[in-house]
């Protein structure tokens, strides 16, 4: 009887050991850390965060703790940023938008073409009406909210308008979630002029703090327990752009003519929403074709 028990214990230990080795070999090393001292002085777009205020300190701490321990999502956004930020950063710079706004895209969509219950889509989460107002095409065949470059340009246009309205980038960021009119209404009714002084809805009240937390963690991943080797980060895949100014009746045939398949075509052109591209107006579309990354 004792021998059977011992054998079972040995077997269980062996299984646990093998499982541990398998997990270690296949996952990014994430260290469980209950607390890490983050900087007492923080800024968003060079605008100081008043961490000396008790509620500000606590709100920021909530988002730091949440995202430090949201291991799956935080690991993935760090990996994706290596591929997505090089597209976003030069567009922000060209438009005079502070680089910190790339972290707004992180909290909006986790850097994927997300779809919200309300109907917002893409990395920058535009609603159809706002997208069209910002010059993006949105229909059954083309949805430029899924075009990272065009959506980033549209986000820049919105943020510039918001900055002109509020006079600072922190409120411009908050308005991306709460709307310019909504944020302005609360500032006026409460007789304040700072994001850190106004009482907003729960989602908008957390919004800038979430940006600050992801900015701090993503800039210093190892400090917060995310040890991700360079080879594990996602990489940009080089592409060439093919100009199309006529109807494409079958995108699968078009993909094959370019030396790829339909799946790869849609991965690199998620703004193509159907199996064809009607184009009676002869509009010029730029279709991305990868030049490497899919062959040995």
UniProtKB/TrEMBL annotation:
Q: Which family does it belong to?
A: Belongs to the transglycosylase Slt family.
Name-wise, this protein is: Lytic transglycosylase domain-containing protein
Record-linked SUPFAM superfamilies: Lysozyme-like (SSF53955)
**What parts of the sequence cross the membrane?**
none
InterPro entries assigned: Lysozyme-like_dom_sf (IPR023346), Transglycosylase_SLT_dom_1 (IPR008258)
Q: Any idea where the Transglycosylase SLT domain is?
A: 95-192
Q: What is the lineage of its organism?
A: Bacteria, Pseudomonadati, Bacteroidota, Flavobacteriia, Flavobacteriales
- CDD domains recorded for this chain? MltD-like
């Amino acid at each position: 009887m004792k021998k059977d028990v011992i054998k079972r214990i040995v077997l269980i230990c062996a299984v646990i050991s093998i499982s541990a080795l398998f997990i270690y070999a296949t996952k990014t090393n994430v260290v469980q850390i209950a607390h890490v001292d983050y900087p007492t002085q923080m800024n968003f777009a060079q605008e100081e965060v008043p961490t000396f205020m008790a509620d500000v300190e606590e709100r920021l701490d909530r988002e730091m703790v949440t995202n430090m321990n949201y291991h799956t999502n935080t690991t993935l956004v760090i990996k994706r940023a290596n591929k997505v930020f090089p597209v976003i950063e030069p567009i922000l710079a060209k438009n005079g938008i502070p680089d910190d706004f790339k972290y707004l895209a992180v909290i909006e969509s986790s850097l994927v073409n997300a779809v919200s219950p309300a109907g917002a889509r893409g990395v920058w989460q535009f609603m159809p009406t706002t997208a069209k107002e910002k010059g993006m095409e949105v229909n059954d065949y083309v949805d430029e909210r899924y075009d990272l470059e065009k959506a980033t340009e549209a986000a820049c246009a919105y943020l510039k308008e918001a900055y002109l309205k509020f006079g600072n980038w922190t409120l411009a960021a908050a308005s991306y979630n709460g709307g310019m009119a909504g944020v302005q209404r609360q500032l006026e009714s409460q007789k304040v002029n700072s994001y850190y002084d106004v009482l907003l809805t729960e989602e908008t009240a957390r919004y800038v703090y979430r940006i600050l937390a992801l900015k701090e963690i993503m800039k210093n991943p190892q400090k917060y327990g995310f040890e991700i080797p360079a080879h594990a980060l996602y990489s940009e895949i080089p592409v060439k752009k093919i100009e199309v100014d006529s109807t494409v009746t079958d995108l699968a045939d078009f993909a094959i003519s370019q030396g790829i398949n339909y799946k790869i075509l849609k991965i690199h052109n998620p703004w193509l929403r159907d199996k064809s591209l009607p184009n009676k107006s002869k509009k010029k579309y730029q279709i991305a074709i990868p030049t490497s990354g899919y062959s040995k």
